[in-house]
Amino acid sequence: xxxxxxxxxxxxxxxxxxxxxxxxxxxxxxxxxxxxxxxxxxxxxxxxxxxxxxxxxxxxxxxxxxxxxxxxxxxxxxxxxxxxxxxxxxxxxxxxxxxxxxxxxxxxxxxxxxxxxxxxxxxxxxxxxxxxxxxxxxxxxxxxxxxxxxxxxxxxxxxxxxxxxxxxxxxxxxxxxxxxxxxxxxxxxxxxxxxxxxxxxxxxxxxxxxxxxxxxxxxxxxxxxxxxxxxxxxxxxxxxxxxxxxxxxxxxxxxxxxxxxxxxxxxxxxxxxxxxxxxxxxxxxxxxxxxxx
Length: 293
Prior knowledge:
Distance between the termini: 30 Å
Largest sheet: 4 strands, antiparallel
Helix content: over 70%
Number of strands: 4
């Protein structure tokens, strides 16, 4: 324990003696972790909204004109137990359409009451997109069913977009991690070079590479943790500030919470990732220098 505390004190003293190098390293890690966390938060929020939208959009089973609406509703209730099922007559469907058109409802004047097909609507709030899709497949068994619609077109486009964004996010993280490690390593090499005499003396008296490099690794970990901590604080502050506005502007985002976009596991991962970047950068800068000694 004493040795650990001594290493920490040496690392903090070294960071204090080189404020410019420390600021550059911390700032670089901050930018990398901030961008990574932002992408992860957007993906998490998008997936949460996708799940909410999938549950809010009713599954409509359109029937043939001569289908038995009561039998279709009974079949839908059996296929979707515990869910709200409503039979919609052609007249009711036309009335809904008129109401949705508002001032343009006059365009429907002259159409017969039977212009729209009868249908059965199933509401499954809270159901994920995958389970909604499975339920839609089952509802094709409803007698007289011609088509089953659950908003598949735009929901699946959004799902595809999120899937591609996730791949882009992983690639971005890998590129940022590599670029940050190299940039911070080049920055830390200045600190290592400034203390080359100290390192050479330690090597001459028989100090091992582990003993020589440990303080630098601790310095890198502290710099990475500081940069990641600042990024996590910035992301958390942005979430608290922006989420209320998003919930006010988008009703379906009413249940979106800070934990949905910035879960605890993500925050811990960002802190650990920042430390890992700092340690990796220290290793890159230190290994090259130790090879020369």
